[in-house]
Amino acid sequence: MTTSSINYSKKLNLRRTRAIELEAEPTGTLVVSCKRPYQKKERRLDGRVLMVEDFNNPPTNLLTLKVPTQILQCPPCHQHYLLGKISALNLLDASKVQRIVSTAQDLVATGTGYFIVAELEILRVEVVNVFDLSNFIESTIESMISKASIDKLARRGSFVASSKSQELDLGTCTICLEEFSSSPEAKLIRMDCCHVYHLACMYPWLENRSTTCPCCRFNIN
Fold first, then answer.
1. What is the pTM of this model?
2. For the RING-type domain, which residue ranges apply (predicted)?
3. 143-209 is classed CATH 3.30.40.10
């Protein structure tokens, strides 16, 4: 079973040059193009996200605009003209449109023309959640077996340290590195491999990290 989600992100790249020409009057040229790259990713059951497809198609030309000289000479007319032409594309939000217009206005203010290429990139990312039912069932069964084995071990191997016996000479719990002699009356657990630990240390170890003995890797399953 799989589910998928699709996200879009937009990025605007501007390349601009001053168009210094032999004519007495400056000219303005604006080119707007669009790239639509596509990425497909798979999110596996273990949380890994893998790239399975990365397609980067060539840009498509959306607009080539040669601004009339008389409009360049009137800043309010120039701004209104560009705003109308770019907004008609219905692809750019207001902030990106304003960025293009401001760039053109700044270049005109220097007394030269301009040649601006505005490349819009619309990235489409599809994330497919791959749900492998067979692996899920297998991991669930393994988890249930491990939990049953831990409970069985706890019932069979747990005991309470007594200051009147020899238990306090068992040495150190290699999980918390605390001497058993410093915790009389503490609950301990003896593994089938005969290694001894604090029960409070061993339970989290077996449930969250490994079903093996920390010392000898004996598997309780």
1. 0.53
2. 173-217
3. yes
